Amino acid sequence: MERAYSEYSWYPACSDIRQPDGRPHARLTIWWLMVGLHYRETTMHLRTQLGWLTALAVTVGSVEARSQGSGGRSREGTTELDVAGRGAGSIGIGVTISRSSSQVTTPPEAKAPPAGSTPARRRWRLVLSLGARWGGDPGSFEQSMRTAGLDSPESIFGGAAVTNPWTIQWGTPTSGEGTVTIGYAIRPWLEVRLQGGRGGDIHWETMGYRGPFEFNISSPGVSFSTEVDIRPVGAALVAVSFSGLRFGVGPSLNRVEVRSFSPENEFAPWTRSRPGPGHGTGSERATR
Amino acid sequence: MPQGSRLFLDLSLQKQWAGSQEFGPYALHDVEGLLAATFPRTRVSFDHTAFKMGLGVRW
To answer: Which residues lie closer than 8 Å to A29 by C-beta, 6 or more apart?
Structure first.
């Protein structure tokens, strides 16, 4: 019995930046196409442990840079346009160029705030981020498999010897992720942030084997594999800014799924690995 | 944090201490149902690190 699962999702995000008179400076539309993993899992003799872990998320370093280049500057809804600007503001320059196509003209006297006035504080922030995530602890499963004697070398289909246990991490040790962050500045130096997103899973599978070198029906061995998936769900941060650096700390939520398989061999029925005393404790729970 | 810019670039390095969890022990049986191995109780850490780069807007 098999169950197929697939996921195809679109996540639109649109940021519409307007001037005080309602005319748009620029419009930025980002479409993310996330095509999720499409996998099949055998529900017979498969055990899955699924849990939610809370975590302490600490932003150990966060740098925020101005988006405008040396020639672009934004101040309270008015924009000075200079498409020749370069440098760290490449993204801002791109937005400014989009604005130039709208032929918005601003009187020079309107570019500077009136004398004695202070700019209104912008308290809300919205950040769309992409990045990579790495971590986890595959080595602990490998060590336990060596302890269990699941470290026999084997030959698969008469090929070269495979050293057990061994771990594969799907793709690379890192994993891409998309994050949406909403922030609110209580003070210029103090900000509350909520983070959420999709992707960024850390996934690895460790396999071990105990048995004869040449796998056959008359003398099958026993193999065991574990799969771990860590999926960050969201985080709430309280961040303090200092000289352009922001340091934040707060709780986060991660979904952790651990599966274990124990087929004797590909010709015999699969066998369920029996739970031990540690099963069902803490935040883990059996779904099958 | 610059106050005047509406758009900004946000770079962050984030460490998540997700804690650890114990799994096992699991008794592994061969095709005849005999005990072949015992996977011991194992503690696994789920700590991880993320680096992110994004575009932000203030209002």
So the answer is: A12, A13, A14, A15
